[in-house]
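Quarterly update from the structural biology core.
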Amino acid sequence: MTPRRTRFYLDKRNGKFMGVCAGIADYTGVDVTFIRAGVVLLTVFATGGVGAVAYFALGLIAHDRPREFAQEDRVDRKFWQKVRARPGHSVRDVRASFRDIDRRLADVETHVTSQNRRLADEIEALR
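Predicted structure, tokenized:
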């Protein structure tokens, strides 16, 4: 079974302690430094140590990031982060990309066929 790209995974390869902050950063697309600072601030200033409890709970419950995702390039990683953040918008963005590709392909086709049409007319005129 293929691992789901929209699920939260620990990123132990890029993590410092358990990979929770690196996993959150990979999941959301936010810089890992900001995530780590937020976890430290939550641990220090929250009442009852909510940050530490949540950190260890995520570290114990979540699965490690599958090896298949290690080969992802930057464009794929950004795409899946957008899908996780706003699924409805990602479908709209894909449709817009396809519309743009179709428009550009139509422009290329028009250019190629119009150039060949003129050439065909000149060849016919020479006969």
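The two ends are 65 Å apart (CA to CA).
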